[in-house]
Design brief:
Chain B: It is a multi-pass membrane protein. Chain B: One of its GO terms (biological process) is amino acid transport. The complex is a heterodimer of chains A (410) and B (310). Chain A is 42% helix and 19% strand. Chain A is built from 13 helices and 15 strands. Chain B has helices spanning 2-32, 39-57, 59-86, 90-112, 139-161, 163-173, 175-180, 185-208, 217-232, 237-256, 261-264, 281-284, 288-299; strands at residues 128-132, 135-138. In chain B, α1 runs parallel beside α5 (139-161), α1 packs antiparallel against α8 (185-208) and α3 (59-86) packs antiparallel against α4 (90-112). The chains are: A alpha/beta (410), B mainly alpha (310).
Chain lengths: 410, 310
């Protein structure tokens, strides 16, 4: 055989194998932009581990439409400006999906930047998977086609909490404490209006907005609540702001119900300890003691064995598996089509069916009100205590009207 | 009434913690003319050392050991770092300590991780001491008060009533004369720097578990310490004491006031839902020390009890 032909054959074989390889090796990169250092670093790190675990689940069953998933972490130091720098970095690395959750101020900056990017770069669009930023505006006034929220927003959770509050006749006064930024203000506004509507007899004896992640000793705030003689406290605090608040409440012996969004968040159960039993309540889409399938229990154990952390975000798995379903349906990385698939999608989560509402891209999922208790099967943070369900709110019952006027790409 | 009592108690404790930190800073400044930008980093080192030592020796040994270790680190920094740069003037020193603050933060992140460590109040002190207007008062806070006051008394005695104090005070104003009298002035400088760092370390030991022990703790408290030193007057210990308490009280009182601008300036007819009217005094608390700093520099640049203008 002439030398030239061998050379040509091997070259074409090389090119062929190259193109085959690249088709095989095309990775779906998901950029995770959240705090990975600083006071809220633990929260961001916890979220990242959930995404890594969900990605490994998907990869072990063949990836998304045959493409392996890779989670790339970007530290935004919970700063909106820094997040935009990290977003650009993610885009430069070929990321097509952005996941973020900590801080509605950050989510708000990202959703604007992503919408702008997609408008300017057709064919190179991004999808924003918001797994925890719950300012209602993100799926109302500020909604856009590329943003999908997998957590129930402030008004939905507050509606659930205040429905529960309606039947607590011995609570006659409440104190509202929240962080001073878009989320905290939305929390305070929702609490005020819904309590006035559902229980006009409850007196709101005080509200306080405190700087985010700046307060290291909440004792003065707790003493204000004690002085105001509040029968219950409503708080939207999360991460260190939550654990330090309960730490101070514990030290001051403030034994009243704390109605929270994030009472089960990382670090808080350890700080609460025995004195919080029966008093700290949370409204979430998940806690470890909801009755569920063997498969889901295996997932919890798998997560805990790998990361030595309690599972907290079911919604991260929901987001990843819904994305998987959408990519499988499209069969390629055609982002506008994938967004179209996600829109209106239903998915069977381990806790019932969830729907990504098409009109505003807000996930409707069952919510649970649960109480910190010692009568539980699975504990949190090795405290011997965990959360126990008080009430279930069906997915349909959490739905609220939206003002979103979605503009879809033609 | 109860608001005032609580604000006084909490303000006192926070103020004394600030004083413990700023006393070292102001001592170093008055002696060596060095504005130690890394001072709060020594506070952080104190907390982390106490956390690590506490795991093997328990809290009580760590209470003594950790400040000594921090002091030793401080002595090394002075001996092999600052002393060489000293000849080059103040800008070099400022830049050196500024860089040092970042180096210490990064080292802490590498050794202890990026997140808060579980440095807890010792079990023996984790109970409530008394009940006041329905709120329990943790014993650990009283312990902090005790440590701060002991340290304050010890420092005063050392500086005013002992021979060492005499020499230190003399080298503040007349270093050459002290040196001619046969004292090793550079060594005195090193000891003062180490002692200042050890004080910062001690405040870290007792403040780290009262607040949070995390890599950003130095940068969150650092600016306030500078405010204390400037408001009190550069180099004045008494001034730093008054300023620490002032800032401690100011911040805790502000948090306990719920009134907003619309209520306070009701004569101006502010809308309580408007952007200006809805600002509450409590939300201004974190800003107040810096407002005080700006006002002080405008009206009395040498601070409450400072002797030099700058």
């Amino acid at each position: 055989m002439p030398k030239g032909i061998v050379w040509k054959i091997s070259l074409s074989a090389f090119l062929l194998s190259g193109s085959l390889l690249s088709a095989e090796a095309e990775t779906i990169k998901i950029g995770y932009i959240d705090p990975l250092s600083g006071p809220f670093g633990t929260a961001g790190d916890g979220g990242l581990k959930h995404f890594l675990h969900a990605a490994s689940e998907i990869n072990s069953s063949g990836g998304m439409a045959g493409m392996p998933v890779e989670i790339v972490g970007f530290d935004n130091k919970i700063n909106p400006k820094e997040s935009l720098i990290q977003l650009q970095k993610a885009i430069d690395q070929g990321v097509r999906f952005i996941a973020q959750g900590n801080g509605s101020s950050v989510a708000s900056a990202l959703t604007d930047a992503i919408a702008k990017h997609n408008k300017r770069n057709p064919g190179d669009e991004l999808i924003f998977l918001n797994y925890a930023a719950v300012d209602p505006a993100l799926t109302n006034a500020k909604c856009n086609y590329w943003h999908f929220r997998f957590d129930s927003h402030v008004d939905m959770k507050m509606a659930g909490l205040t429905d529960w509050l309606r039947d607590q006749k011995d609570i006659k006064s409440v104190y509202i404490l929240a962080q001073d930024y878009s989320f905290g203000r939305a929390f305070t506004a929702a609490a005020k209006s819904m309590i006035t509507e559902k229980r006009p007899d409850i007196q709101i004896v005080g509200t306080a907005l405190h700087p985010v992640a700046k307060i290291k000793d909440f004792t003065p705030y707790v003493q204000k609540m004690i002085n105001a003689k509040a029968d219950a406290v409503l708080t939207g605090n999360w991460s260190t702001d939550m654990s330090l608040l309960v730490k101070a409440a514990n030290a001051s012996g403030h034994n009243v119900p704390y109605l929270t969004f994030y009472g089960g968040g990382l670090g808080a159960p350890t700080a609460m300890g025995e004195s919080a039993l029966g008093l700290v309540k949370q409204i979430t889409e998940f806690h470890e003691n909801i009755e569920t399938s063997e498969k889901q229990l295996a997932r919890m154990n798998g997560f805990e064995d790998t990361y030595h952390l309690d599972m907290f975000y079911q919604r991260v798995y929901t987001a990843m598996h819904m994305l998987d379903k959408a990519v499988e349906a499209v069969g390629s990385l055609d982002i506008p089509k994938i967004a179209g698939e996600l829109e209106g999608m239903t998915y069977e989560s381990p806790y019932g069916e969830v729907t990504m509402r098409a009109e505003d891209h807000q996930l409707l999922q069952p919510l649970y009100i649960s109480t910190f208790s010692d009568d539980v099967e699975r504990d949190v943070e090795n405290t011997g205590f965990g959360f126990k369900t008080d009430a279930l709110i069906s997915a349909a019952a959490t739905a609220l009207p939206t003002t979103c006027k979605m503009r879809r790409p033609s | 009434m109860e608001t005032v009592v609580f604000a006084l108690l909490n303000g006192l404790i926070y103020g004394l913690l600030l004083f413990m930190l700023s006393s070292g800073l102001t001592l170093i400044f008055s002696m060596m003319g060095v504005l130690n930008m890394a001072h709060a980093s020594f506070y952080m080192l104190g907390a982390y050392f106490a956390f690590t030592l506490g795991q093997s020796t328990g809290f009580w040994f760590a209470l003594f050991l950790a400040p000594i270790c921090v002091g030793a680190v401080g002595a090394c920094v002075e001996r092999w770092g600052l002393r060489r740069i000293h000849a080059g003037g103040h800008v070099g020193e400022l830049l050196f300590t500024f860089g040092l603050a970042y180096v210490i933060e990064e080292l802490v992140k590498i050794i202890w991780g990026k997140f808060a460590v579980a440095y807890e109040v010792p079990a023996e002190l984790n109970f409530s001491l008394f009940e006041l207007y329905g709120a329990q008062y943790p014993a650990y806070r009283m312990f902090m008060l005790l440590v701060s006051i002991t340290m304050l008394a010890g420092l005063w005695y050392l500086l005013k009533r002992t021979r060492i104090g005499l020499i230190i005070q003399a080298s503040l104003t007349h270093p050459h004369m002290v040196s001619h009298l046969g004292h090793n002035v550079p060594r005195i400088f090193m000891l003062v720097f180490a002692a200042g760092c050890a004080l910062a370390g001690l405040s870290g030991v007792i403040g780290g578990n009262y607040l949070v022990t995390e890599p950003s703790m130095a940068f969150s408290i650092g600016p306030i310490v500078f405010v204390v030193v400037v408001v009190g007057g550069m180099g004045s210990l008494a001034g730093a004491f008054v300023a620490s308490l002032l800032i401690g009280f100011l911040q805790t009182f502000a948090i306990s006031i719920d009134a907003n601008f619309a209520e306070i300036f009701s004569f101006a007819g502010l809308n309580p839902e408007g952007d200006l009217g809805r600002i509450t005094i409590s939300s201004l608390a974190p800003m107040l020390p810096f407002m005080l700093l700006v006002l002080m520099l405008m009206l009395r640049p040498r601070g409450l009890m400072g002797e030099r203008e700058f």
